[in-house]
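Milestone 3.1: sequence recovery, worked example.
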């Protein structure tokens, strides 16, 4: 009988749909949102019979597709068609992940997702032995004489890269520069020779031939320094890099509107404020900050500057300052009270 403990498998990453029904997509999104809000990353362990049982990561639904978005996405899918791995580089919260997931889904192939972090090593990418499986065999070959044999068999569990290269999936490797570069040595032979080496495997199983439809999109942050590793030039040299910046104002409005139920005027005011703060502050103020501010303002909606002129009331200045302060404060966490009050003054002045 198999030893029960050997059934516990450690699997990283998530398998993502190729393109099923919208209902499945919404359910997967909800599941993913629940997971993320628990702080669980794709690198978390899970159990199950295969490596593909994790919740799916999907592009935002609806995915806003203005000219700016569509043009970037077709550049990405174009390079994928040209069989080049694409490296998306841009500031925090500008939409890299959403774009990568949307471009990946557009290919109509399965999508496999992994988040880079310090704990990602080669095994986390390609797979590992997940403990032994023990069997006891009893042979009663001569009457009254029995032979007992204990068989131990190794159990291997594939991780995202092995799954992706075998299935011809699109690998979305988010924030890959947060992982140790040595974990990525296996990628060199994937892109150069079309072969994935699986250290820890023996014989024929040691390598997987890369499926002709396998493609990869990597994202990294251009302004992040903490916890980021410089990756090997040999690897970066095999990518094409697409630099992305914050979208134009109209696109940002559409994006915020797709996430928060507020009037067009309110959305326009929040996006304008976000863009002013982006220019004026020495902090990264992404589209995500605009969405978060809008979500807060939708809740604190009661506090408007009611001037009774019959026009729709605007948000109260103090409320705007408070909300943007709360949204941006985590970026100066650990700084002294002077920096906190300076940030508040700067936000208030720009309001
Ligand atoms: N085209 C889009 N349609 C709808 N929502 C979008 C779109 N692009 C970005 N967003 C939303 O904007 C926010 C930021 O996007 P995203 O997480 O992709 O940014 P990022 O650059 O990957 O951020 P980080 O650097 O922090 O990983 C998310 O809430 C995302 O859902």
């Amino acid at each position: 009988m198999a030893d029960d403990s050997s059934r516990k498998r450690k699997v990283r990453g998530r398998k993502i749909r190729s393109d099923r029904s919208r209902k499945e997509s919404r359910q997967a999104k909800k599941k993913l949102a629940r997971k993320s809000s628990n702080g669980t990353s794709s690198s978390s362990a899970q159990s199950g019979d295969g490596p593909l049982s994790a919740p799916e990561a999907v592009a935002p639904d609806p995915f806003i597709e203005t000219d700016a978005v569509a043009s970037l996405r077709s550049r990405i899918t174009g390079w994928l068609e040209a069989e080049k791995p694409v490296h998306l580089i841009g500031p925090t919260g500008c939409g890299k992940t959403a774009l990568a997931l949307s471009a990946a889904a557009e290919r109509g192939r399965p999508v496999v997702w992994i988040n880079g972090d310090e704990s990602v090593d080669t095994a986390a990418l390609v797979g590992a032995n997940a403990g032994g499986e023990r069997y006891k065999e009893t042979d009663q070959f001569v009457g009254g004489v029995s032979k007992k044999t204990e068989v131990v068999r190794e159990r291997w569990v594939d991780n995202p890269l092995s799954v992706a290269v075998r299935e011809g999936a699109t690998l979305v490797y988010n924030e890959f520069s947060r992982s140790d570069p040595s974990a990525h040595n296996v990628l060199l032979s994937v892109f150069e020779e079309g072969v994935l080496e699986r250290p820890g495997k023996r014989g024929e199983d040691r390598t997987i031939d890369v499926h002709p439809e396998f493609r990869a999109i990597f994202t990294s942050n251009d302004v992040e320094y903490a916890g980021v590793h410089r990756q090997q030039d040999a690897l970066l040299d095999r990518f094409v890099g697409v630099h992305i910046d914050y979208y134009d104002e109209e696109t940002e409005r559409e994006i915020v509107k797709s996430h928060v139920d507020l009037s067009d005027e309110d959305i326009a005011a929040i996006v304008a404020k976000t863009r002013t703060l982006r220019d004026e502050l020495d902090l990264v103020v992404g589209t995500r900050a605009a969405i978060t501010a809008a979500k807060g303002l939708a809740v604190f909606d009661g506090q408007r500057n009611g001037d009774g002129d019959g026009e729709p009331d605007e948000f109260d200045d103090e409320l705007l300052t408070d909300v943007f302060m709360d949204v941006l404060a985590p970026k100066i966490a650990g700084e002294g009270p002077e920096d906190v009050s300076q940030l508040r003054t700067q936000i208030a002045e720009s309001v």
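The radius of gyration is 25 Å. The pocket of adenosine-5'-triphosphate is lined by residues 60, 63-64, 69, 90, 92-98, 221, 255, 258, 287-288, 291 (CB under 6 Å).
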